[in-house]
Design a protein that fits this description.
- The structure is a single chain.
- By secondary structure, the chain is an all-alpha fold.
- It has two domains: about 5-170, UbiA prenyltransferase (Tetracycline Repressor, domain 2, Orthogonal Bundle); about 170-299.
- Helices cover about 80% and strands about 0% of the residues.
- It has 15 helices and no strands.
- Helix 3 runs antiparallel to helix 5 and helix 8 packs antiparallel against helix 9 (about 170-195).
- The longest helix is centred in the last third of the chain and has 29 residues, at about 270-299.
- It is flat, with a radius of gyration of 20 Å.
């Protein structure tokens, strides 16, 4: 009765459950999934695969995110960036969040099995379990290389999109996975430097906590250089054309610039600026892949 008489609280509950899915992260993942779908074919992507395939992948990603909220609720309560999350503040109960995650995962799997193919569904499930169980439940607290090893689960969306259209794994989607895999460490380690004291307080062995900031900055620089090299491979294997090559060089050069600025310590707040740029970098790089693909088709 109290809930029915309090519309504001109903809205808050809706927002709480939406927040459990980490919608901004899921949107970025779905952009890479969409690009994987369109790159997989010279014809149009069937609308059922486009809509329900991405919806299924998104629901499973949201389920993994909700499990992450449950497992990390005590850590989240200690960190300024996460202390207002629904479970950290007690607005959603752990069992309710797990039930919500299960519902999302089941709905996502049903959609993928119904509208794409079994390989897409099982690869998506493997990605879900890799993030929710392997990374969140074990690696995050076990090793400073947590994000390197666990990053493979988060790199899967372009492969999932590709397989949803073609029904098989190929070298091209694995290259897209490699790009995100190489992008993940400098992306997260830049944030970890910015939030170093909070990770230390929560007893999470992120690289700047265990090995210091200088060591982490050096590895950000090295991984960013590797990412720049990997990002050129689609052009090398004739998967993309000169437009993508130009974008990859410019975007990667800018990322490398920020990694160098962070390494040198020449600007204040370089860590969080590097982190923010890394998000824009991945979004623009995959958009460049997509635009270049359709330009090649029209030549």
């Amino acid at each position: 009765m109290a809930t029915l008489l309090n519309p504001a609280r109903q809205q808050a509950l809706w927002r709480d459950y939406l927040e459990l899915t980490k919608p901004k992260v899921v949107v970025l993942m779905l952009i890479t999934s969409l690009v994987g779908m369109f790159l997989a074919t010279r014809a149009g992507v069937p609308w059922t695969v486009l809509v329900f395939g991405n919806l299924g992948i998104g629901l499973c990603a949201g389920a993994a995110a909700a499990v992450n909220h449950v497992v990390d609720r005590r850590i989240d309560a200690l960190m300024a960036r996460t202390h207002k999350r629904p479970l950290a503040e007690g607005r959603v109960a752990p069992l309710a969040a797990l039930a919500f995650a299960l519902l999302l995962a089941v709905l996502g799997m049903v959609l993928l099995l119904s509208f794409t193919n079994a390989l897409t569904a099982w690869l998506t499930l493997a990605s879900l379990l890799g993030y929710a169980v392997l990374y969140t439940g074990f690696l995050k607290r076990a090793t400073p290389q947590n994000i390197v090893i666990g990053g493979l689960a988060g790199a899967a969306p372009p492969l999932l999109g590709w397989v949803a259209v073609t029904g098989h794994v190929g070298a091209e989607p694995l290259l897209l996975v490699l790009i995100i895999f190489a992008w993940t460490p400098p992306h997260f380690w830049a944030l970890a430097i910015h939030r170093k004291e909070e990770y230390a307080k929560a007893d999470i062995p992120m690289l700047p906590v265990t090995h210091g900031e200088h060591y982490t900055k050096l590895h950000i620089l090295l991984y960013t250089a590797a990412l720049l090299a990997v990002s050129l491979l689609p052009y090398v294997i004739h998967m993309s054309g000169p437009l993508y090559l130009a974008c990859a060089v410019v975007l990667g050069g800018r990322f490398l610039h920020w990694a160098w600025v962070l390494y040198r310590g020449s600007r204040p707040h370089a860590a969080i600026r590097t982190f923010k740029y890394s998000i824009a970098y991945l979004f623009l790089l995959f958009i460049a892949l997509l635009v270049d693909h359709y330009l090649l088709l029209n030549l």
